[in-house]
Amino acid sequence: MLYWLSEFTAYCKVLRLFEYVTFRAGGAAFTAMLLTMFLSPLTIRLLKAFNATAPCRFQGLMDEKYIDRAKDKTPSMGGLLMVASITVAVLLWNRLDTKIPLILLSATLLFAALGFADDFAKAAYGKRDGISGRVKLFFQFFIAGGAVLWFNLIPETNGILQEFFVPFIKVPLFSSPWTLLFSTIVVVGASNAVNLTDGKDGLATGCSILCAFVFAVFAYFSGHIKFAEYLHVPFIPSISEAVVFASAISGACLGFLWYNCYPAAMFMGDTGSLALGGAIALIAVLVRQELLLAVVGGVFVLEAVSVIVQVASFRLTGRRVFMCTPIHHHFEQKGWTETQIVVRFWILASIFALMALGTLKLR
Q1: How many domains does the structure of the chain reveal?
Q2: How far apart are CA 256 and CA 342, in angstroms?
Q3: Which helix (H) or strand (E) holds 174?
Q4: pLDDT of the chain, 363 residues: tens digit per residue
Q5: Is 11 helix (H, G, I), strand (E, B) or coil?
Q6: Domain range for 98
């Protein structure tokens, strides 16, 4: 919306700043951060008033001494504020004459709605696992598949979503409609991986900040023809608007972290985690770096893989590989404090982010 102020550059030279995606990205991040920070106290009071707390997922599955009962009173659904802040920032700072930010925002809101339904089932009906896993997975594929297909059909992408890119290789390996299915699976997997990671105060939030920042950098280079040619990344017109969207995500997460760091005053819940994971993965799909998402979101991958390995091992052999999964609970039972787990995982996430950025020159 604010982009249109650049039309009045003839009357005020300063308004030309709104033409630059870097300026608007900074504005989106700052707006989302301030909204989240200043509205968090009100959100916390409202969530407490509506008793928006979720039952412990590990009741009966984990030794009672590892369960922090104080968290049973911490309100969930804080993701509502995050998504609302992202929405306002996007509507203010993105160019709305392109479809890319509108598709990203629509998918994010739908993922948030699905997460809210899950959180509501836990809070209102005391269901430990929320809505049915199959129902949740169906709607995740529906939302992700719809967004990927929509991206593929718009003129801005020019069918590039069907091209399969691999890190370190300059040209796509092949082009096929089946790539769209792979992209959909990646989005669903990332959404669930962030959800699994959201088990310690600030853990998923901090890692999401780094992931969103990395893909904002990739989107910036992909949207600039000279940088795209120099770095051998696909040039996609109008994808620069994804930079603004990714910055809004980082800003909202930064503001939320102020109240979500240990001890958390509120949790994002599935409302936030499903939306964040889906949004970040969709940006990765747009810049054609789905495989690199496994590096950027290395912490999310470790969390998801630990669950898969644990379930497979127990069903096949009757033995558990880890003391408890997701893997952050394994380290908790090994004696790590919550702060140690979060900070050490943040360090890992920072290393993964630097590795991903390093691939820009290794092509």
Answers
A1: 1
A2: 15
A3: strand 174-175
A4: 776 666 667 677 777 787 889 999 999 999 999 999 999 999 999 998 888 776 555 444 455 455 554 566 788 889 999 999 999 999 999 988 889 999 999 999 999 999 999 998 888 777 777 788 899 999 999 999 999 999 999 888 888 899 998 887 878 888 889 999 999 999 999 999 999 998 889 999 999 999 999 999 999 999 888 888 888 888 887 888 999 999 999 999 999 999 998 888 899 999 999 999 999 999 999 999 999 999 999 999 999 999 999 989 888 888 888 888 899 988 988 889 999 999 999 999 999 999 999 888 776
A5: coil
A6: 2-361
Q: What are the φ/ψ torsions at residue 223 (nearest 5 degrees)?
A: -90, 0
Q: pTM higher than 0.85 for the full model?
A: yes
Tokens of 132: 């049915």
202's tokens: 């600030």
d(CA 118, CA 128): 10
Which region holds residue 237: left if phi is over 0, alpha if psi is between -120 and 50, else beta? beta
What's the rounded Cα separation, in Å, for the pair 305 and 314?
A: 14
What are the structure tokens assigned to 357, written together?
């950025």
Long-range contacts of 137-141 (CB under 8 A, 24+ apart): 137/188, 139/114, 140/111, 140/114, 140/187, 140/188, 140/191, 140/192, 140/274, 140/278, 141/184, 141/188
Helix (H, G, I), strand (E, B) or coil at 323: coil
Q: Between 99-125 and 269-286, two packed helices, what is the crossing angle to 10 degrees?
A: 160
Residue 51's region, left for phi above 0, alpha for psi from -120 to 50, else beta, is left
Distances (CA, A) of 98 to 94, 155, 224: 9, 10, 16
Cβ neighbours around 35 below 10 Å, total: 22
The residues facing 175 across adjacent strands are: 163
